[in-house]
What does this fold into?
Amino acid sequence: MRTLRAGLALLIAFGAAGCGDDDTSAAVTGQVSVFAAASLTESFTTIGKQFEAAHPGTTVTFNFAGSSALATQINEGAPADVFASAAPKNMATVTDAGNASGAPVTFARNQLVIATGKGDPKTIAGLADLTKPGLKVALCAEAVPCGAAAKTALDAAGVKLTPVTLEQDVKAALSKVKLGEVDAALVYRTDAKAAAADVDAVEFPESAQAVNDYPIVVLKEAKNPAGAQAFVDYVGSADGEKVLTEAGFQAP
Amino acid sequence: MPLPLLLPAVLGLVFLILPVIGLLARVPWATLPHRLTSPEVLDALRLSVLTATAATVCCLVLGVPLAWLLARVTFPGRRIVRALITVPLVLPPVVGGIALLLALGRRGLVGQWLDETFGIALPFTTAGVVVAESFVALPFLVIAVEGALRGADVRYEEAAATLGAGRWTTFTHVTLPLVGPGIAAGAVLCWARALGEFGATITFAGNFPGVTQTMPLAVYQTMESGDLDGAVVLSLILLAVSVTVLAALRDRWLTAP
It folds into this structure.
């Protein structure tokens, strides 16, 4: 173990000497495994490609799913270097279990919209319209951040809604709208934007009361801690922020 | 006893039993009674038993005649028909779910017509769960019953025919009693498969407690939300139900000729 640590230190020292200006990127190589909330699918895929280009010799692999599922997987020992959650609650599941290395950093914020079919065929203008008779609505399950946010928003609006299905992540809820199987779903603004070819996004005022903070952290069991830290830094850099803002995220 | 046979055999047995032991080792016995009687668990269990039974009935109604057709009638393209029937058997259930959506969903090939003409939309309904389970379980029944029919002695049927019985009478009075055990074995297999159905159900019928959230979906959702103990308890119930059904019917049916 001591030799390994010494070797690692040497490696970092070498890398730093070689590159000079940027300590964190210097020793970065190999594979970085990132577990990220489903709503980050598009933006993190782009950021991952940019990261690989900025750090030749690295490959970023993603596991996108509902934050609650990812937290469970990490706590059960899944091999991950970085965890990016769509809500602090699911991040806390991991940090409380002692599986994070250091404190999580909030890197983006997101809020809900109503995703409807193209052209809003059922003329949905706000949360109250979702209770129209015969209207089918998909929500995320409450354990998933988009489901928790939906509950907060619906409670704030005083709307009692019976969805037809509770999906395991936001992309699953969105796909039910895309397929036309439901008339509406509460999804993040970023997801509706990414699917703008197939769905319309209806903004509603109560979403301001259910804004999600997205925390990111390097995991304690990370096989590639240097790469993990570099990825986290990249997400928080101007380049990372640019991708996130373009996707519709708000800066923290 | 040759070692090259014994060793893999024992390994195979351990491989099959070990995960079940792993599950049993994590059962939270202290909170078990409390969890077992929670309304969510009972809801999911009731829905699972109901839909699996309904799916088995559907499979019997459609599958026994289909098996009879394959076993007793020679027609052009019979091999192709049999191959088509086995497709859902090898198809990943989640693919089956997508296929069902595209066929019977609100925008689907037939579903669109069903919705516009009769106002019937199967996704997100308990009937949708039965459809998904039947789709996945039907091939099991057809293959089991066809096997039984092929194994049955056709001379009994021929004798009935020479005595003046029509094909329908022969079927109901001779063939059915003859292959009864085979049908029952197929039905048990079919029921177990329907009870465990996950991929097609969650894809086609969605996930809502009391309506479409069967036990496997409840296990998945509980596990996903980080409640490992809850997921283990639900799994334990499914395990107990499956083992009980198989054990209860094995002596009566599965070992029958």
